[in-house]
């Protein structure tokens, strides 16, 4: 079994040696361990430092393209070089590389297709109380959208099986973390987590300028992924709200007519009609969005077959031996 450990990097010459020196050389159940550095437009000696530490696999971007694209390109490289499992870690040494062996074991044993490291964010000293609360809330939202039960959905320290990577498709340009969990949950991939302790902070995040940007971009990624798989839930909810709101002025109109109250009630009637039209449009858009979801699902099936042709079948595809012609064994 071949393991690729990919490390997205942007100017990590100071911290990359610590990452590379703590990656296990041997892991039970793994025959080959390969390290892949994705250089996302670094202007320092990141690549030279990696080569000095024996790294032979590289994906290089001429300019910074972001974490999601780096993850995507790294996965394409790893799969094209025969990876059975891919572990994603970071170049800033925030994750304990010593735990990679534990991280891949559920995949090796066939218990899970994706393993997410739980950073136990409530124990991280440099996280403010507000950030800890937002991490918990974000994980709760992702779990609701994906039907999972992960304590740390934002963690980027993960192990993916080849089968899961063939089935997943990265759409967002910000961060793949939330999107892949929602996709995996809705595609019924087995996901689990293991607890880890993070290393001391080495630098500020380069993915976002502040927590508000992170919350905004993560929220948009979650909504986009959710709408991809359950658009009818959103539009049906919107349609029901419009319908209930539209019923109120209609009821008011009928009550006033029954009581023969003086004055004109046309305003209530018009408002009710407008709200009911909004409800009908919402239900219609929900039907169209659901048809679009079905079309996208069929296209993803075609893309999966294309990936299988390119990267080969996975262990999830099993061919049973043919039954002998003269087999007299009782059923």
Automatic annotation (TrEMBL):
GO function terms (MF aspect): transferase activity
Signal sequence, renumbered to the chain: none
Record keywords: Membrane, Transferase, Transmembrane, Transmembrane helix
InterPro entries in the cross-refs: Glyco_trans_2-like, Glycosyltransferase_2, Nucleotide-diphossugar_trans
Residue intervals passing through the bilayer: 232-259, 265-289
Domain Glycosyltransferase 2-like: 7-165
Pfam families to which the protein is assigned, alphabetical: Glycos_transf_2 (PF00535)
Family: Belongs to the glycosyltransferase 2 family.
Cross-referenced PANTHER family: RFBJ PROTEIN (PTHR48090:SF7), UNDECAPRENYL-PHOSPHATE 4-DEOXY-4-FORMAMIDO-L-ARABINOSE TRANSFERASE-RELATED (PTHR48090)
Protein name: Glycosyltransferase family 2 protein
Organism of derivation: Agrococcus sediminis
């Amino acid at each position: 079994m071949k393991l690729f450990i990919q490390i997205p990097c942007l100017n990590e010459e100071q911290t990359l040696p610590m990452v590379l020196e703590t990656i296990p050389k041997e892991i039970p159940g793994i025959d080959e361990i390969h390290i892949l550095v994705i250089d996302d437009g670094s202007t320092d000696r990141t690549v030279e430092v990696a080569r000095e530490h024996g790294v032979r696999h590289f994906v290089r971007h001429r300019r910074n393209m972001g974490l999601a694209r780096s993850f995507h390109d790294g996965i394409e490289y790893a799969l094209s070089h025969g990876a059975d499992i891919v572990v994603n870690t970071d170049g800033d040494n925030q994750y304990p590389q010593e735990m990679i062996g534990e991280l891949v074991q559920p995949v090796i044993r066939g218990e899970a297709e994706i393993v997410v490291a739980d950073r136990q964010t409530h124990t991280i000293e440099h996280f403010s109380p507000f950030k800890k609360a937002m991490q918990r809330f974000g994980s709760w939202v992702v779990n609701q959208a994906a039907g999972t039960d992960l304590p740390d959905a934002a963690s980027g320290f993960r192990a993916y099986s080849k089968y899961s990577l063939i089935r997943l498709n990265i759409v967002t340009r910000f961060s793949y973390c939330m999107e892949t969990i929602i996709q995996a949950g809705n595609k019924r991939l087995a996901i689990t987590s293991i607890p880890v302790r993070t290393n001391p902070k080495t630098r500020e995040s380069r993915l976002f300028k502040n927590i508000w940007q992170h919350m905004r971009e993560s929220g948009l990624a979650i909504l986009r992924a959710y709408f991809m798989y359950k658009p009818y839930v959103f539009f049906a909810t919107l349609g029901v709200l419009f319908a209930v709101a539209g019923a109120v002025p209609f009821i008011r109109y009928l009550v006033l007519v029954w009581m023969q109250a003086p004055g004109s009630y046309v305003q209530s009637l018009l408002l009710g009609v407008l709200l009911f039209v909004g409800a009908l449009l919402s239900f219609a858009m929900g039907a169209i969005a659901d048809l679009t979801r079905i079309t996208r699902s069929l296209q993803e099936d075609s893309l999966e077959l294309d990936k299988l042709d390119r990267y080969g079948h996975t262990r999830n595809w099993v061919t049973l031996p043919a039954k002998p012609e003269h087999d007299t064994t009782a059923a």
